Amino acid sequence: MHEDNMIRLAHICLGGLEQSGLRLHAVPDISEFQARMARIGKASNHPMLSPDWHDFTSVEAFGIVFCIDGEDVGGVAARFIDIGEDSLARHWASTYSRLYNSGAGSPVRAFSSTAAKEISGKIVYLGELFLSAENRKGKVNWRLVFHYLFSLAHLKWKPAWTYGFVRQTDVLSGKASRYGFTRQHIGPQEWEVHVPSRSSSEYLVTLPRIDLQEAAAFYVKHPEFLLDPASRLGDHAGKQ
């Protein structure tokens, strides 16, 4: 039963993180999430997850705040979108025109086949990953953080796909795999308009529902492979 596995996976993740001193707190209000992150040095959310651009309800988005000794040290956020039969590429083209190009047309082109033909329906976008500067040298198991987030998003929304963007250098260093994204796609789109923090070299990283369900079943049976102390929390790797 997939839901049971997701609950057990989330329990394993939270237990492992709490043993290392890191607690995760779900925040249903993205405005509150942004404000709490701002107090520890994070810039405002990027347009895709910004309460300045969208009137999010708790049904559509939530944040997770990382805490050590009761103090906020970082976070990550998730957004649910049902794009129906539209492709992810079409969704990007239409929303990016407004978010990044003042409505003057799509700032991206040359979509990969994954974005243009494969991904549609109920999707979850992950972004705004941040860790305060003074805590970036500590140890954390990123797989626990992200698999808790994946589990929570699955139980809340049951998406067909979960996706985000990761810089090329971070993908090549193995971060996307440590996060738990099973598929990594080079060149999902090409940018024709300069946008700070966005690049044609960034990877689209995805986790299809079936991959998550199989990972949950495996980790519930073999939690020792998830509770890996070798993962380290490095530099801020958040993408919008």
Descriptive notes:
This protein is of the alpha+beta class and 240 residues long. Helix content is 36%, strand content 26%. The protein contains eight helices and nine strands. The chain has helices at residues 2-19, 30-38, 88-101, 113-118, 142-157, 168-172, 175-179, 209-221; strands at residues 22-27, 61-68, 71-87, 108-109, 120-131, 161-166, 183-185, 190-191, 203-208. The strands form two sheets. Strands 1-2-3-5-6-9-7 form a seven-stranded mixed β-sheet, sandwiched between helices. A two-stranded antiparallel ribbon has the order 4-8. Helix 1 (2-19) runs antiparallel to helix 5 and helix 1 crosses helix 8 (209-221).
Output the keywords.
240 residues, alpha+beta, 7-stranded mixed β-sheet, two-stranded antiparallel ribbon, 8 helices, 26% strand, globular, disordered C terminus
- Following the backbone from N to C, one meets helices and strands in this order, namely HEHEEHEHEHEHHEEEH
Radius of gyration: 17 Å
Largest sheet, strands/sense/barrel: 7 strands, mixed
How many helices?
8
Low-confidence stretches: 229-240
What is the structural class? Answer: alpha+beta
- Global morphology: globular
Task: Give the mean pLDDT.
Answer: 92
